[in-house]
């Protein structure tokens, strides 16, 4: 079993609570708009980090992380892209990849809106962890934790960051 801490849209904001809530996690995944290399480095120093760059990320982050990241963890194929849309309204930039070879889990960020939705058509879970930073219109900052156990997703938790 692999425990995942998932966040997005930090926009260069650092909160020590990231480490507090991700302490039980084996890996941290960031769905883009990291905002600064320092945030990425602090996360990566704490746990192995998988990430994609977002539309606000500069060349330093774009050199380190891909725009699209497809990987397998504990028997589940994952596809992550910052601007990805959601079931029923995927972004045109990723819809071809999703339709051709759907992963078990598609992760996106960008909207600052927490959303966990199952796509019955593609037999795929979609997670947008919302926004963990301070920049944007969102009123509540959120993180997501979940586990992958031999290709099965379980124990999903939404964490609201207060303060």
From TrEMBL:
Domain Calcineurin-like phosphoesterase: 3-150
Transmembrane regions: none
Keywords attached to this entry: Metal-binding
Signal peptide range: none
Highest taxon above the source species: Bacteria
Claim: Metal-binding is one of the keywords in the record: yes
Pfam family, one: Metallophos_2
EC number: 3.1.4.-
Entry annotated with the keyword Metal-binding: yes
InterPro entries attached to this UniProt entry: Calcineurin-like_PHP_lpxH, Metallo-depent_PP-like, Phosphodiesterase_MJ0936/Vps29
Gene3D superfamilies documented for this protein: 3.60.21.10
Named cofactor requirement(s): a divalent metal cation
GO molecular function: hydrolase activity; metal ion binding
Coiled-coil zones: none
SUPFAM superfamilies in UniProt: Metallo-dependent phosphatases (SSF56300)
NCBIfam families (UniProt xref): yfcE
Family indicated by similarity: Belongs to the metallophosphoesterase superfamily. YfcE family.
Name assigned to this protein: Phosphoesterase
């Amino acid at each position: 079993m692999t425990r995942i801490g998932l966040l997005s849209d930090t926009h260069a904001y650092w909160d020590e609570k990231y480490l507090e809530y991700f302490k039980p996690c084996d890996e941290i995944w960031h769905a883009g708009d990291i905002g600064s290399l320092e945030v990425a480095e602090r996360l990566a120093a704490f746990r192995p980090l998988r990430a994609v760059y977002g539309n606000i990320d500069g060349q330093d982050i774009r050199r380190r992380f891909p725009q699209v990241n497809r990987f397998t963890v504990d028997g589940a194929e994952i596809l992550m892209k910052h601007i990805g849309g959601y079931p029923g309204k995927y972004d045109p930039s990723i819809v071809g990849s999703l339709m051709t070879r759907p992963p078990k889990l598609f992760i996106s960020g960008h909207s600052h809106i927490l959303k966990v939705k199952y796509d019955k058509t593609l037999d795929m879970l979609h997670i947008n962890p919302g926004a963990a930073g301070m920049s944007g219109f969102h009123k509540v900052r959120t993180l997501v934790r979940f586990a992958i156990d031999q290709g099965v997703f379980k124990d999903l938790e939404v964490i609201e960051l207060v303060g």
